[in-house]
Write a structure and sequence with these properties.
Blueprint (H helix, E strand, L loop, with lengths): L1 E5 L4 H9 L3 E3 L8 H4 L3 H4 L3 E5 L8 E3 L6 E4 L4 H6 L5 H9 L3 H6 L2 H7 L6 H7 L3 E5 L5 E5 H6 L5 E7 L6 E7 L6 E11 L6 E8 L6 E2 L1 H6 L8 H11 L10 H22 L8
Parallel strand pairs: 1-3, 2-3
Antiparallel strand pairs: 4-5, 5-8, 6-7, 6-8, 9-10, 10-11, 11-12
Helix pairs in contact: 11-12
The structure holds flavin-adenine dinucleotide.
Length: 282
Amino acid sequence: MITSFHIPASLEEARKLMNDGYIVIAGGTQINNGARLAADPAWVAGDQRLVSLQALGLTGIRRGDDGRALVIGAMTSLQDMADHQEVPAALKDAAGFIPTRNVRNQATLGGNIAARRSDSYVIPALIALEARLAAIAPDGGRKEIPVEDYLEDPADCLITEIVIPVPEVPCVAVKESRSQLALPVVSAAVALHPAGVTGGFRAVLAAGCVAKQSVRLPEVEAMLSGPEPPARADIEAAVAASVAPRSDTLGSAEYKRHVNAVRIADAVLAVFESAGASDGKR
Ligand SMILES: Cc1cc2nc3c(=O)[nH]c(=O)nc-3n(C[C@H](O)[C@H](O)[C@H](O)COP(=O)(O)OP(=O)(O)OC[C@H]3O[C@@H](n4cnc5c(N)ncnc54)[C@H](O)[C@@H]3O)c2cc1C
């Protein structure tokens, strides 16, 4: 039962309440989702005390101080993100993969990251884009951490903003689910970052749905450093060898491995095409 609900007027107050054991509520889609409550010990332990982030001005999308980075407030809804012109297309696509507009209106980007779901659509795109989180640690210190590191250890951080350093890099996100509303078996994204003076690319490829959390596939990334993509069969084989999904009600491990290989190869070929690197040899 919710016994206490605070709407603090400052980040410092929110941080203090978190330190006192209050649970953050952002859009509330995950917190209020009955299926999830049973899985979260903090919810079944008895009294629940909530701290809402709604009055802290954490919404909005702007350019960073360098004029280049895109900075998205943690309380920005996934729908507002999907509708914003300057948000990278892959991230807009990923937000739009959540099939219900009502959920997208309510769900926030910060909440999606903090929920650390393996089947998050936006997390792989954020990892591929090398996004970083601006956050407040329990000791009140401000820090900026890569999304990947936060997934490993959230350290009870309060996420305030999401920073995408170079929003223009070519990036493609893909999903696969058995129906529009079903949970996905594929949620992945790949981006091609410039490799510097050597030319070519530095690929960053992240996949959800194949491990407890979204993970990078370094062996596949290593294949993608040249100006041309490898052959589809080689990409599919490398992905299949890199992922170890588990069988569950969504499908067998074998099916998931196959469909991840095919859809991630789609994403790789598409991102090379959008980078203008394809010459039609595939
Ligand atoms: C019908 C339905 C369908 C859904 N479909 C999908 C889907 O297809 N894909 C998907 O990825 N998700 C899906 N979700 C899950 C959920 O909507 C998303 O994860 C959503 O983005 C969570 O955001 P929220 O603002 O609602 O988070 P909340 O429910 O408010 O919070 C989620 C978690 O994050 C913590 N938190 C929130 N904000 C912060 C912050 N700024 N700093 C630190 N911690 C924070 C909270 O304490 C909580 O543990 C679905 C949910 C529903 C109800």
